[in-house]
Design a protein that fits this description.
The structure holds two protein chains of two kinds. Chain A is mostly helical. Chain A has one domain: MetI-like fold (Orthogonal Bundle), CATH 1.10.3720. Chain A contains 13 helices and no strands. In chain A, α1 packs across α12 and α9 packs antiparallel against α12. Classes of the chains: A mainly alpha, B mainly alpha. At the A-B interface, α1, α3, α4, α5 and α6 of A face α1, α2, α3, α4 and α6 of B.
Chain lengths: 277, 353
């Protein structure tokens, strides 16, 4: 074999390895979509069909009927988490990057450590605390809990982004007589738009996909997000696979949509953040 | 990290990948970058603003900006952690949940954790599971990262699609794997039997000797993209000259990897493993969906058993004691993590004084 032939063979070997990796990565997603169109008989036949077999819309019909409310609930939780993350994180990140404060080191350390705390630790305590102040099984309670994923992360990422904004801009606004609040609102926020969208998308997906807080802080009767809805199809002896898969397909939609639609913003938001941060 | 990030801006797929690296790694990856490359540039920027003390008006404004975050951290992090410690010393019962406090129980809950076989098993499983996940995720993730640094048809597509596991809510991932690993009609058994590797279907989820391994496989699948992308972007930062110099000196591929590339990207490897550790000790949704902790508690982790103690047996005190074991385990990483993120701390004013 000549050198050229060998390098060509090597390249095809790399492509082959990539294809193999992608098959493993993508197969579960493919399996959800295929199974969501299968009939109960097919799913319980004891044979796995690699290709669609006797497709039906029954699972979707059933899930749309049973889980529409859950989809709406999850949307509310996702949007609520995004709003909370923005309200808490944006001003804090601004203060931690543009004002020279003694407390910065303490707060940034606290945020870094907060990312480490396991959710189950928070969930156990929050359940009793929420019970005590009567926000267990409510949207605000769940949204506050879901914020624990996104808020420390958001502040740290936004802070990195704000470092990239020249101080001259805010100084100029001050010289022109703008108050601190006006500077923040009129100068900083518009410039940070793409970073804010990134944060909002990330927080939304956290709220949408959360399961542990939904399982602990909600009682499962009145407010049922889609993740909890899917979980109820799981039986001890027989699982309603068709419904699980159709609901699972629904649960995958927002992440897919947001990553396609908001990709431009996410990319510019996070790369801008990482360039200087 | 910034060089390649910028260069690849023209390429849609690569940018998506990059965005997601950050979405998961977030601040840490950036902070490390900050610590290595940008500390200097920044320090000078900040120094320029020095000599300029904050006016009273600005001081007040800064604190107002910080108020929501400070309140949130106190309420959603500090309070639950402190309360969890209190709870672990209390004699709780379903009746005491309505009140915020219960009678003092001394060390009874901790004594229970130390003597309860399932709690012990959960702690051991968590350690095994974490070690296994990190080894598997690192080896596969690093191999893929190295693969993607080569030039061949399909590398861009590979890099952009590798993030797909992140699109799924964790509970969905768990249920899909449960479906694929079923005894009868599961894709994995079907494949193994079609190929002829096994003649009897394997009971992946209900065999006490296999179930934890199955959960491990699912978790490795979930974590590989994170390792791949972080390590890939670190590999992109290794200067070409360094690699070429090693090549001219006659270093073999393995020597170049071990003696040149790994030492250069070691800080990123450390952060990636650290974050991987933190993510893995927290795993909950995946196990609940896959096995629910069974069969015979063989896949019970600290998180799932703590949930069981608190929310199914209503022994919140015992659950809290187990939570504290988990918290200590996770917090072992905190000093290391802060040290590795020192770049992002140094950027602030306080550290300069």
């Amino acid at each position: 074999m000549t050198r050229l032939q060998r390098s060509r063979a090597l390249r095809w070997l790399c492509t082959l390895a990539t294809v193999a990796a992608l098959v493993i990565v993508l197969f579960p997603v493919y399996a959800v979509i295929v199974a969501s169109f299968e009939s109960t008989e097919t799913l319980f036949s004891g044979t796995y069909y690699w290709l669609p077999h006797a497709a039906t819309l029954d699972n979707y019909r059933m899930v749309i009927q049973a889980q529409s409310g859950s989809v709406l609930t999850s949307l509310v939780v996702g949007v609520g988490t995004a709003v909370l993350a923005l309200v808490v994180a944006v001003p804090a990140a601004y203060a931690l990057s543009k004002y020279r404060l003694r407390v910065t080191v303490v707060l940034v350390s606290a945020l870094l450590v907060a990312q480490i705390v396991p959710s189950i630790v928070l969930a156990t305590s929050l359940f009793i605390i929420f019970h005590w102040i009567h926000i267990v099984n409510t949207y605000p309670g769940l949204i506050i809990a879901d914020g624990t994923y996104a808020i420390p992360f958001s502040i740290l990422v936004l802070r990195a982004f704000f470092f990239s904004l020249p101080n001259d801009l805010t100084q100029a606004a001050r010289v022109d007589g703008a108050s601190e609040w006006q500077t923040f609102l009129r100068i900083v926020i518009p410039l940070a738009r793409s970073a804010l969208i990134t944060i909002a998308v990330f927080a939304f997906l956290n709220g949408w996909g959360d399961f542990i807080f939904a399982l602990t802080i909600l009682n499962g009767a009145t407010i049922v997000p889609i993740t909890l809805g899917i979980y109820t199809y799981l039986g001890n002896y027989s699982t309603q696979w068709g419904a699980v898969m159709a609901a699972g397909a629904f649960a995958m939609v927002p992440a897919a949509v947001m990553l396609v639609v908001a990709q431009r913003y996410i990319a510019s938001g996070l790369t801008a953040g990482s360039v200087v941060g | 990290m910034r060089g390649p990030g910028r260069r690849r801006l023209g390429n849609g797929g690569a940018v998506l990948v990059r965005a997601n690296t950050n979405a998961v790694a977030g601040a840490p990856a950036q902070s490390v970058g900050a610590g290595q490359g940008r500390g200097g540039a920044h320090a000078s920027g900040v120094r320029k603003a020095r000599g300029f003390t904050l006016g009273r008006r600005q001081q007040v404004a800064a604190w107002l900006f910080l108020t929501p975050a400070v309140l949130y951290i106190l309420f959603a992090f500090a309070l639950p952690i402190v309360y969890n410690i209190m709870l672990s010393f209390e004699q709780t019962s379903p009746a005491t949940i309505a009140d915020i406090t219960a009678p003092f129980a001394g060390l009874a809950n901790y004594r229970f954790i130390l003597s309860d076989p399932t709690s012990q098993m959960a702690i051991i499983h968590t350690l095994e599971f974490t070690a296994g996940s990190l080894i598997g995720q690192f080896i596969i993730g690093f191999s893929l990262a190295l693969l993607f640094t080569l030039r061949f048809p399909g590398r861009t597509l590979g890099r952009s699609l590798i993030i797909v596991p992140w699109l799924l809510p964790l509970i969905v991932t768990g249920l899909i794997f449960r479906f694929l690993f079923q005894l009868e009609g599961g894709a994995v058994n079907q494949l193994l039997m079609d190929v002829g590797l096994v003649h009897q279907p394997i009971d992946w989820l209900d065999d006490p000797h296999l179930a934890l391994g199955t959960v491990l496989i699912a978790n490795i699948w979930l974590g590989v993209p994170f390792f791949t992308l972080l390590l890939y972007s670190a590999l992109q930062d290794v200067p070409v000259q360094v690699k070429e110099a090693a090549l001219i000196d006659g270093a073999s591929a393995w020597q170049r990897l071990r003696l040149v590339i790994v030492p250069i990207i070691l800080p990123v490897i450390e952060v990636t493993l650290l974050l991987g550790f933190v993510f893995t000790v927290k795993v909950f949704d995946l196990v609940i969906a896959l096995t629910g902790g069974g069969p015979a508690n063989t896949t019970q982790l600290i998180t799932t058993w703590s949930y069981n103690l608190s929310f199914e047996q209503f022994s919140f005190g015992e659950g809290a004691a187990l939570n504290n074991v988990l918290l200590v385990l996770a917090m072992i990483c905190a000093p290391l993590y802060l040290y590795m993120s020192r770049g992002s701390l140094r950027l602030s004013s306080g550290a300069e004084k």
